[in-house]
Please model this.
Amino acid sequence: MKTPRPSARLEPLSQLRNLKMARSAHAYVRGSTVQFYEWLHSQPGRRLPKGPAVWICGDCHAGNLGPTGDLKGRIDIHIRDLDQTVIGNPAHDLVRLALSLATAARGSDLPGVATARMLEEMMRGYEQAFEDDVDKEPPRPAQVKAGMRSAVQRTWKHLAQERIENTKPTIPLGKHFWSLSREERSALKTLCATPDLHTLVTSLKGRNKDDRVKMLDSAYWVKGCSSLGLKRYAVLLGVGEGDDEEYCLLDIKEAVAAAAPRVARTAMPRDNDNGKRVVEGARFLSPGLGNRMIATRLLDHGFFIRELLPQDMKLELDQLSQTDAKLAAGYLARVVGLAHARQMDMSTRASWMRELQACRSKTLDAPSWLWSSVVQLVGRHEKGYLEHCRRYALEH
Model:
């Protein structure tokens, strides 16, 4: 496959993003983050309860949670994509997750009653995170256990076959990887020789801080959906020498200003240092992942870097049964709750729980503001999805 020149990437990336968003309503919700933030700034969005100012994911849809590994080789379910992380209102993460779960239920052809029960279970799981020890592992539903089993069994060979299509020390150009400009390749080579990157790569369990780290190959990475169009690079490194050499794959992603609403007058890295914002938010919300990340400047842009581990996976909520949908909603919400609760003292947690437990009706054990928000957002996104598909059809 002939890859586009570095100066001509924008148009094919835009077309690919439109294609991905046209595939399903759930994919459209995952890719249309700006529409969600526009709603948050609208009158209905501004009527959400004001939670305590903590680091939030900012784009807390179900696809942004999944198994991740830490520096010591342990694996758990965490928030795994934090491009939009800010110090903000935790209610925003709840609404975003609820919208994602509701569209997943619609994609599985579940009745509206199932969506209502999912939101009840979601709030139950979130609130339980504040009642328990924040470091206590929550029980996992069957589909999450299956994902964890897959993550535990994965090796570098699986990662290489999935991400770069072979286990040789090269990145083959084609559908997923495009050629670099001379300037990009030179900048990446310089980056890979820095002490900060050496420390990041050699800090993983089983590696020695004195191991040699060498760039073997690099490419522009065509990855994601809403982030397509940002600068993103894959770098293949060799760690160690001779028979002891092993490979690692770096994901180097441009960090831009977050569209997620933030709390005013908070101690957060400035917009000209978005890489640091992403890394700092990750260390509060998903410490195992955040401690594997660094921020840097490259080609006059901010970036954040992490080594991809074989255990880093997405949870796919496709074709859910009603029972699976409820269990997944409760479990994922509890993961988000643990990430929020970890940042609050006991009095703040108690105050936030009182706020969430208000506004419950006799017929639905979930806050009325959450249900009404999801109804409005599903309607807006369904309309937006159909309009997006119509435009896509007319263009193709």
About this structure: Residues 159-308 form one domain. Strands lie at 54-56, 65-69, 75-79, 86-88, 177-178, 213-221, 232-239, 246-254, 293-298, 301-308.
